[in-house]
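Journal club side-thread
Mid-discussion, someone asked how the predicted structure for our own chain would compare to the paper's figures. Pasting it here so we can look after the session.
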Amino acid sequence: MEYLTGVVLAAGGAVDVSWEGETIVAVEPSARALERPRLLIPAFIDTHIHLDKALISGELAEHEGTLAGAIEAIHERKRRYTVEDVRARARAVIESAVMSGTTRLRSHVDVDSIGRLTPLEGVMAAAADCRDIADVRTIAFPQEGILRDPGTWELMQAAMAAGADIVGGMPHHELDDRSRADHVRLCFELAERFDRDVDMHVDETDDASVRTLEMVADEALARGWIGRVTAGHVCSLGPAAHDYAERVIEKCARAEMTIVSNPVTNLVLQGRGDRGLIRRGLTRVAEFRAAGVNLAFGQDCVSDGFYPFGRADMLEVALISAHAAHLTSRADLAYALEAVTEAPARGWRLTDYGIRAGARADFALYSAPTWPEALRLQRPPEAVWSRGREVARTRVTQELLRDGSGGGAAPPERSNR
């Protein structure tokens, strides 16, 4: 049996946590008052990331910074992908994520006529390499479209047969509404054939007239794919007419969909052509929240053609998302934590998540007394556990030198392991 004593939960109160093997046995009030309270939270879940594209930004030609420009810039690099190249970059990001407190990731992986199945094979190999520290699920993602990219439909079927976990899609990238509707239909047909959940990029555009979210919600309701559909980005809903937004949000609620907002990337990509009042690329977080729709935040990109930053650090994602979505009250900050923990767990339909008896022992320990302080300070976790085993540890030493007290001596040794 292993223990953590006197740790503080995000909801408040000091507890003792015990676990055996992979499973939490008990979470009980603690009689021990710690001089330096430490926060214990469930390990983060990054439910929207692109591991196949990660860490290539320095190799790409400059572009105008838009979504379309980024897609085009990546084409040349994608043609040069190898399984080992994708594997190494994906593995580096998974390891970075674990060091930052994330033990579950869901990666969109391009499936198209350019890279074919090489990105999927590379990410699946990296997932296997890292299975002792993290769970990685793959989404077959037709970035270039299905109808506008001949051969992709066959590759999507092959990707699912090869072991991709989830059916992806990007209907708004098709050329007209009929093709967009066909794209949605094909993705759901594939999901039914392989009994898989659906996780699509939806309406990642500034154009408020693009409305494929309603197509996705309607298809989920018609096919009974309740609680099995995720829609990411949903940027065009922000500037859309309010009557449409209210109608489609109600449908998303009935379909028990998960919405994933990716503010860290969309704040950079969207509104590039605007002057004066610039659209921010954020979906209607407040309205989804009010309607009870499950909403999560994702990293999305890590140093690729879309976004030159990112560390797969969900604490950073939560902070940036809180800024973008005006989350500042105590209840708001609790919602920001939920959006990178419990909300993605619901989207994954997990039954073993959280800090409670019977849950899987995945958690992260922070040198902060509360969740708002951890969010504010942005320090890495002291330790991270996955399946009951400690998989990451960080030690950082800082010294403030006053009045020349350093004496010209060499700086102290620092460890960041």
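Post-session note: The longest strand covers residues 102-110.
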